[in-house]
Amino acid sequence: MTKGKGKQVEPMVLLPPMPNPSAGSANPSASLSSLWGYLLPALNHIVRSPTNSTEKAPVIDISYHMGIHTATYNYFTMQVETVSTNKERERLTPSGTDLYEHIDKYYAEVARELLLGAPEDDSSLIHYIVPCFNRYAAGAHSVNRLLNYVNRHYVKRAVDEDRGWLTLSDIFDAVAKAIQDGDTKDKITNKLKERRTEELKKWGWDEGGTSEQLAHAESCAEAASPVDRVVPLSALALRRFRTELLEPLLAIPKLKGNKRRKAGTHNGNAPNLPKGRLARAVRELLEKQDVDVEERKRLVTELANAMRVTGVRDGHPLRKRLDKYLSTGTV
C-alpha cells in the first residue's frame, strides 16, 4: 500500500494472542512462585514482545486472561483464609504485598533493560526514548487491566491505610499550621481535602474539571511519589520508567576532582557546565537547523508528555524548557 508519491507505508503487524500455557495438574495459586511462573509469560508477551505497534500492546488469549484473573483471586483468597484470627492478620504482612513487590521489581528490570539499550549518540536518544516509552506505557496499561484485582484488593486497602501516594504525614505540617483552636473535625477534614487538591493542581487538575482530568492528574501524582508508596499498577510502571530510565539520563555528571565553579557561572546557563544526557539531546534537537519543524514538535510533545506522566515535576529545568518551546515555539 502506498500513500502519496512513492512513499511506502509499512503494514501494521500485530502479534497473535498468546495461548494459555499448559499448567498440567499444578495449581497456579498454590504459592507465589507458582503464580508468578504462570503470570510471567503473559507479562513478557504484553510488555516485552517486539512489535511495530507502539500504541497497542500484544494481547493474550481470553482463556489465559480469565485463568490469570482466577489464579490471582484464588491466591489472595487463600492468603486470607490461612490466617485464623484478627490478631494474626495484624502481625502478618498484608496479603498481596509479595506479588505487588514482584511486579514492581519486574518493571524496574524492564526499564533498566531499556536504559541499557539506549544509543550512545545523543542525537538519537530522543528518537529512541519516545517509541520506547509509548510501547512500555501501552504494555503497562494492559497489565493494569489484566491484574486489576491487585489494585482492588491490595492497592485500595493500602491507600485506606495511609500508605498511598499522599499520606497524612506529607500534609500534616501544612494543615497543622492552618488549624485553629475550635476547629471541628469536619473543618480539619476539609483542610486535608484542600491540601490534596493543591497537590493535584500541580499536575494539571482544575476544580470543576472532568473526572478524566482528575484521574490523569492523580496518576501523574502517583507516578511522582517515592518508591515506597503503594500506587495502582499503571502508576507503578510509570514510576519505574522515571526512576530507572529517565532519572539516570537526567542526572548531571559529577565534576572530577574538587573543582569549583568560576564566578558568574552559578546561574546554570553557562554552556561549559556539565549537563545530563537527556538535556544535551534536547538542546541538540531544539537548536539543530536541519530538523523538520513538525517532527521536532512531535518529539518534544511526546517527550514532555512522557516526563509529565512518569512524575517528573513541572519545576524541573528540562520540563520548563520543553514547555516553553511548545507554548512559544522558541528555544
Please tag this protein with its features.
331 residues; mainly alpha; flat
Helix content: 55-70%
The overall strand count is: 0
What portion of the residues fall into strands of 2 or more residues? under 5%
Radius of gyration: 23 Å
Can you walk through the features of this model?
It is a single chain. This protein has 331 residues and is an all-alpha fold. Helix content is 60%, strand content 0%. It has 13 helices and no strands. It has helices at 32-48, 62-81, 86-91, 97-116, 122-146, 148-160, 168-178, 185-201, 211-223, 233-250, 277-287, 293-309, 317-328. 26% of the residues are buried. Mean pLDDT is 85; it is low at 1-10 and 261-270.
Task: Summarize this entry quickly.
The chain is mainly alpha-helical and 331 residues long. It is built from 13 helices and no strands.
Which helices and strands occur, and which strands form pairs?
Layout: H1 32-48, H2 62-81, H3 86-91, H4 97-116, H5 122-146, H6 148-160, H7 168-178, H8 185-201, H9 211-223, H10 233-250, H11 277-287, H12 293-309, H13 317-328
